[in-house]
């Protein structure tokens, strides 16, 4: 077992740096980020939250590099691999870090990821950081793909970069698909289907702190829409609904 040369804090900072300076999120248009302190993290489960047109949550994981064939899960990969434990011990909030993150995925707007490096040396870290390749050399694993576990049960994630393979243990069970940074970008770029326009307008009101007076019946919808429209126009923000489709 080989530990990474760098800390989780150092790695998380590098990921955040690339996300802030890249084109994934347009922070000039109102995207915001939040990093809870250690006490808050115990309750909310995540290291980083970015609120764009939908909330994105990230938990950073620094793995162990398992090089020897005597490693516990070596036969599942037939090669050296990376692994990290899922924090599933019951906490003071009657949950666990992993299950708290999974519960966030139950809101269809949320996207929740474990983010971990596919490298472990300082040399690689420095090279990737200087060339803005920390994210592209990282695993972005959607928490929803893992599922929810019984509290105090032991589970971990193992993965390789080439060939790309992700397995959850102790089952073991292969998590199908690709989990690269490019797949995360596609998730950002995917169009969001709005099933309930009233619900989405409520989301916009809360996100931008738009004051809407309480009006009964159909007036609520009209006044909310008008206030949102006025706010966006006054702040030079424009968005478009591509199409409205009737779902039978």
Features:
alpha+beta; 2 domains; 8 helices; 248 residues; globular; 6-stranded antiparallel sheet; 19% strand
Give me the secondary-structure topology.
Blueprint: E1 2-3, H1 8-21, E2 32-34, H2 38-44, E3 48-51, E4 55-60, E5 64-66, H3 74-77, E6 81-85, H4 97-104, E7 111-117, H5 122-130, E8 138-142, E9 156-160, E10 165-169, E11 173-174, H6 181-189, H7 197-208, H8 218-234
Parallel strand pairs: 4-7
Antiparallel strand pairs: 1-5, 2-3, 3-4, 5-6, 6-9, 7-8, 9-10, 10-11
How would you characterize this protein structure?
There is one protein chain. This protein has 248 residues and is of the alpha+beta class. It has two domains: 2-189; 193-248, no CATH class. It is 32% helix and 19% strand. The chain contains eight helices and eleven strands. It has helices at residues 8-21, 38-44, 74-77, 97-104, 122-130, 181-189, 197-208, 218-234; strands at 2-3, 32-34, 48-51, 55-60, 64-66, 81-85, 111-117, 138-142, 156-160, 165-169, 173-174. The strands form two sheets. It has a six-stranded antiparallel sheet with strand order 1-5-6-9-10-11. It has a five-stranded mixed sheet with strand order 2-3-4-7-8, sandwiched between helices. Strand 3 and strand 4 form a beta hairpin. Helix 7 (197-208) crosses helix 8 (218-234). The longest helix has 17 residues, at 218-234. The termini are far apart. Residues 240-248 have low confidence and may be disordered.
């Amino acid at each position: 077992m080989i530990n990474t040369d760098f800390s989780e804090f150092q790695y998380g900072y590098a990921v955040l740096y690339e996300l802030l300076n890249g084109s994934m999120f347009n922070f000039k248009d109102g995207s915001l980020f939040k990093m809870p302190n250690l006490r808050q993290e115990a309750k909310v489960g995540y290291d980083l939250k970015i609120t764009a047109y939908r909330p994105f949550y990230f938990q950073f994981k620094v793995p162990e590099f398992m090089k020897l064939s005597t490693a516990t899960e070596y036969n599942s990969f037939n090669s050296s691999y990376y692994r990290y434990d899922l924090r599933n011990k019951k906490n003071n909030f009657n949950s666990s870090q992993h299950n708290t993150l999974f519960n966030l995925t139950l809101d269809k707007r949320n996207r929740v990821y474990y983010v971990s490096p596919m490298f472990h040396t300082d040399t690689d870290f420095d090279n990737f950081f200087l060339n803005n390749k920390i994210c592209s050399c990282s695993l972005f694993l959607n928490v929803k793909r893992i599922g929810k576990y019984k509290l105090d049960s032991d589970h971990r994630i193992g993965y390789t970069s080439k060939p790309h393979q992700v397995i959850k243990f102790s089952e073991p069970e292969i998590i199908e698909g690709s989990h690269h940074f490019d797949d995360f970008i596609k998730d950002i770029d995917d169009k969001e289907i709005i099933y309930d326009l009233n619900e989405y307008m409520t989301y916009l009101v809360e996100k931008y702190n738009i004051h809407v007076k309480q009006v009964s019946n159909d007036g609520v919808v009209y006044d909310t829409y008008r206030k949102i429209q006025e706010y966006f126009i006054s702040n030079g923000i424009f968005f478009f609904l591509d199409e409205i489709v009737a779902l039978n």
